[in-house]
Amino acid sequence: MTFNLRFENDRDGPNSWVYRRGLVVRLIEQYSPSILGTQEGRLSQLLYLKDHLTSYHIHTPDRIIDDTCQYPTLYLKKNEFDVLNAKEFWLSKTPEVHRSKNWDSAFPRMVSCARLSMGKCVPFWVAVTHLDHMGTEARYEQGRLIADWIRAQSDPVILMGDFNADPGSPVHQLLTSPETGLRDTWQILGRSEDSDSTTHHDFNGTLQKSRIDWVLISPQFRVTDAQIIKDRFEDRYPSDHFPYMVDLSTSFSP
User: Are 2 and 244 in contact (CB under 8 A)?
Assistant: First the structure.
């Protein structure tokens, strides 16, 4: 599941985090994804989920803690995976420099990755990211850095996140190109690209933009189902994004 939490912002009034956080936990527990990738989480939000999603391990490898940052973060179901390796890098010309940004990016953007093993399956990487919402050049260059990283891996990859771009956009074409080798799980299933596939809304279900939240996979994975989750609880949406959840088969073996 990829899930943009909407950052903690008191200007959201009745949709502020303090009023939604229990609903976010409720939704995640209801659907119980093995791997959860969140975006826009500030430190207090990530720690709230850490404390309340007791069946999950929060994955924050060597992270410099900064309570002003909005971190893409992985949560992994306990006892389902062994973490073999981990990496985080910033989507800039200096990926190892904390909060670095370049091009026309409005905010620093990053990737968090984990190399996992599960049963008899070969190891695979899972990565979560959030590309810039303003800079067209930045989005493409950020995507290029991710594509370079993917091409350097010998293991299969799951890439999830909020890409702030349409399917068919330059960054989508880059990540799903034969050279990069990822496939769009929604498109694999032949699902339509229309208002029903929009993932961003304004806390009231009013659809905005398009399908900007993706799960992309290496060819070694098989997609068995996918859904954009539009649940609301107590007449309230948990976030201004609908979570996107995919069922994958990992039957490949060494």
Answer: yes
CATH architecture under which domain 2-249 falls: 4-Layer Sandwich (3.60)
Question: Which bin fits 190, alpha (ψ -120 to 50), beta or left (φ > 0)?
Answer: left
Q: Give the distance, in angstroms, between the CA of residue 220 and the centroid of all CA atoms in the same chain.
A: 20
pTM: 0.95
- For 157-201, the pLDDT digits (tens) are 999 999 999 999 999 999 999 999 999 999 999 998 988 899 999
Per-domain residue ranges for the chain?
Answer: 2-249
Within 8 A by CB and 6+ apart from 190, the residues are: none
pLDDT in tens, 112-127: 999 999 887 889 999 9
User: Rounded CA gap, 68 and 71, in Å?
Assistant: 9
CA 95-142-230 angle, 5° bins: 120
Q: Residue 174 burial (CB < 10 Å; 0-12/13-18/19+)?
A: middle
Asked if 158 and 125 count as a contact pair (C-beta separation under 8 A), the reply is yes
Radius of gyration of the chain (CA): 17
Q: What mean pLDDT do residues 43-66 have? A: 94
Q: In the chain, how many H helices and how many E strands?
A: 5, 14
